[in-house]
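Structure first, sequence second, as always.
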């Protein structure tokens, strides 16, 4: 076969290393030799001797699903082979988590991760049910975490002198060492997204980085996720 479709730009090459790598801007490849975890429904192709098993609890756990209805069901992938993961043609990125690191991420942005990583549910300080129930997953340990993002994310440095305020619907995640709280701004309410009244942002203080996506979750999107 000939044509641009069969050029080297699109042709999958043999894996050169085990574990997670970026196949292209929209897809992660995982060379499995043992076990890894991914969001259910994210596998788009595989080859080799792999088994897929539904994980009941998932990122965020039962508490998050009960409170917000936004649980992220996971699947375990076991065996030897290669699998490719993507979600709604969103851009993909890989984060390396080292011992002593923690990375807090919104469950909707999780694509796949190494089984060596541990995760727990955490609530944003000051964000109870009335504040939208801001539950996130905190990853720690040693391994790689694959993320999806609608568009190219912004990585904004946070310093003690310059806290950063982000839209709660646009935040992807943040690094360890940052303290979070909700910031309510009466004056911004009438200017953001055509709304009126009080606007709420997530304030991050300390030393680190916050990742923000250049889009917001619409009510329809939130139901899908």
């Amino acid at each position: 076969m000939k044509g641009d479709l069969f050029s080297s730009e699109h042709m999958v090459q043999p894996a050169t290393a085990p574990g997670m790598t970026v196949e292209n801007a929209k897809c992660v490849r995982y060379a499995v030799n043992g076990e890894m975890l991914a969001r259910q429904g994210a596998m788009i192709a595989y080859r080799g001797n792999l088994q897929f098993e539904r994980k009941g609890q998932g990122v965020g756990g039962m508490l998050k699903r009960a409170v917000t209805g936004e649980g992220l069901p996971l699947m375990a992938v076991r065996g030897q082979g290669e699998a490719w993961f993507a979600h709604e043609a969103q851009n993909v990125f890989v984060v390396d988590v080292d011992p002593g690191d923690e990375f807090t991420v919104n469950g909707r942005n999780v694509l796949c991760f190494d089984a060596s990583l541990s995760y727990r549910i955490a609530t944003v300080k000051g964000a109870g049910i009335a504040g939208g129930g801001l539950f996130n997953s905190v990853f720690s340990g040693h391994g790689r975490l694959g993320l999806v993002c609608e568009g190219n994310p912004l990585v904004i440095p946070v310093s003690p002198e310059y806290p950063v305020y982000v839209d709660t619907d646009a935040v992807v995640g943040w690094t360890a060492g940052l303290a979070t709280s909700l910031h309510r701004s009466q004056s911004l309410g009438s200017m953001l997204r055509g709304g009126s009244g009080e606007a709420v942002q997530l304030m991050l203080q300390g030393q680190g980085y916050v990742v923000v996506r250049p889009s917001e979750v619409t009510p329809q999107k939130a139901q899908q996720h």
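Margin note: DSSP finds two helices and 16 strands in the chain.
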